[in-house]
């Protein structure tokens, strides 16, 4: 008997550990798989730019010109080329080579300067340039006979996935910040078996209010304190919109879909009224710090750091506090939560308020990224936010979901969009793919719910059958 129990329990654990693993890490595996797929699809010839290009060329010079010699540096004047020239000028190695000069400009400017060098008899041993300017240099040297035999050095190219380039990864993280921040509040709402369709309009409302307040309180000369007050104004107003939605849901029992759909129209209308239907641009240059700034130590965008801090706090709230357990309880079984003494209406009211405030913060970040406020911001963002939450494993039926899963879901959506852009998938096809991804996530959730219900029913029937069998056997023995 003991052996059979031991064998059965061992079989149970053997048959369920992988299901537990997939449940806990399935979305991480999907995200890693997508990153691997787009990495393989975007392997191309990469050409160093800026400081990396300068370091590569200095290494080549060290090997080719050990004794020194005149070198001419030719660039087109693009931002990357400017960084390239700055790095070369700061290099002690290049100063020992005694370069003739640095030529920067259009092809006609470069040709004129090189003609002057030709007439003066100042012919370099090597011409250094970037990959972007190499075609221009080749064309000019082919036209000037004296430069035909001068070797042209350009940075060494190598194969690497465009998807894994540092700039692209930072771009993905920076683009998803607004959606990911709002998705925190949406996760709380959906765990309570609700939904908030007004978050997209609240992005626009917050961005417009912030830009309008900054313009009224100081315009392009506004101080940091003024910008903080304006940002708080947008966040508080959107929190009020969310609170009104929560009031309609709790006090008057209006379905969340209808209540938030109505507030979506209200928020959008308020945005147009405040801005008079036009973008507001009167913002100081320092306003972009939150949306475009990069931490000098971590080299991570400030908006991404804000997003990660908010997710860490939300994770602690949902997994380590009584309030978080109340949210799960309300979504799992509202009546049972009420009978257990939980103030259900207060919990529901609070999650809609929090969702509204986070939507307001998302609007502040977007206004900072775009350095303006417009009533057209946030269009269809509610769909992307809901998609991130659902793909992250939160059940639309309520009572189930994790904050960190939502973050992974947001990155899955961002990676799919970015990857399709890199492989040149047209925008219409991208919409089809995104819709199928959302549908697949909801389908998986429904299948999990159905499988759980089927197992629970089967175990109940089996237990009930065994009890009847034991009862019959006892009576027969008597």
Question: Would you give an account of this structure?
Answer:
This protein is mainly alpha-helical and 478 residues long. The protein has two domains: 50-156, Rossmann fold (3-Layer(aba) Sandwich), CATH 3.40.50; 163-451, no CATH class. It contains 18 helices and six strands. Strands 3-2-4-5 form a four-stranded parallel β-sheet, sandwiched between helices. Strands 1-6 form a two-stranded antiparallel ribbon. The protein is elongated, with a radius of gyration of 31 Å. The model is unreliable at 1-14 and 471-478 (pLDDT under 50).
Keywords:
478 residues; 2 domains; four-stranded parallel sheet; 18 helices; 6 strands; disordered N terminus
Please outline what is shown here.
This protein is mainly α and 478 residues long. It has 18 helices and six strands.
């Amino acid at each position: 008997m003991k052996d059979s129990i031991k064998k059965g329990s061992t079989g149970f654990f053997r048959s369920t550990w992988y299901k537990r693993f997939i449940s806990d890490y399935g979305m991480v595996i999907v995200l890693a798989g997508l990153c691997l797929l787009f990495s393989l699809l975007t392997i191309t010839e990469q050409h160093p730019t800026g400081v990396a290009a300068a370091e590569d060329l200095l290494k080549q010079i060290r090997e080719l010109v050990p004794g020194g010699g005149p070198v001419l540096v030719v660039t087109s004047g693009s931002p990357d080329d400017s960084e390239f020239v700055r790095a070369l000028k700061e290099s002690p190695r290049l100063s020992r080579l005694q370069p003739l000069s640095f030529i920067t400009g259009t092809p006609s400017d470069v040709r004129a300067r090189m003609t002057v060098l030709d007439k003066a008899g100042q012919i370099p041993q090597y011409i250094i340039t970037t990959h972007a300017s190499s075609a221009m240099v080749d064309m000019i040297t082919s036209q000037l006979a004296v430069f035909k035999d001068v070797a042209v050095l350009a940075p060494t190219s190598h194969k690497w996935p465009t998807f894994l380039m540092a700039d692209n990864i930072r771009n993905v993280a920076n683009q998803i910040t607004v959606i990911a921040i709002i998705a925190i509040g949406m996760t709380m709402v959906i765990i309570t078996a609700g939904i908030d369709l007004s978050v997209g309009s609240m992005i626009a409302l917050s961005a417009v209010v912030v830009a309008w307040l900054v313009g009224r309180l100081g315009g392009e000369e506004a101080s940091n304190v003024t910008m903080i007050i304006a940002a708080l104004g947008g966040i508080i107003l959107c929190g009020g919109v969310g609170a009104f939605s929560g009031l309609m849901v709790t006090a008057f029992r209006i379905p969340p879909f209808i209540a938030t759909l109505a507030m979506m129209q209200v928020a959008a209308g308020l945005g147009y009224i405040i801005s008079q239907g036009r973008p507001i641009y009167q913002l100081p240059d320092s306003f972009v710090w939150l949306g475009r700034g990069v931490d000098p130590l971590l080299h991570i965008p400030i908006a991404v750091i804000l997003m990660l801090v908010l997710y860490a706090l939300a994770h602690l709230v949902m997994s380590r506090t009584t309030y978080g357990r109340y949210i799960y309880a309300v979504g799992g079984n509202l009546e049972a939560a009420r009978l257990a003494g939980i103030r259900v209406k207060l919990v529901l009211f609070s999650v809609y308020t929090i969702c509204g405030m986070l939507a307001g913060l998302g609007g502040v970040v977007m206004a900072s990224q775009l350095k303006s406020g417009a009533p057209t911001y946030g269009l269809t963002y509610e769909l992307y936010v809901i998609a991130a939450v659902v793909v992250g494993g939160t059940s639309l039926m309520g009572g189930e979901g994790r904050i960190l899963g939502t973050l992974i879901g947001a990155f899955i959506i961002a990676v799919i969009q970015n990857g399709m852009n890199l492989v040149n998938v047209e925008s219409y096809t991208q919409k089809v793919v995104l819709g199928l991804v959302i549908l697949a996530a909801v389908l998986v959730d429904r299948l999990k719910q159905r499988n759980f219900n089927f197992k629970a029913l089967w175990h109940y029937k089996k237990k009930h059958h065994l009890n009847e069998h034991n009862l019959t056997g006892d009576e027969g023995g008597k």
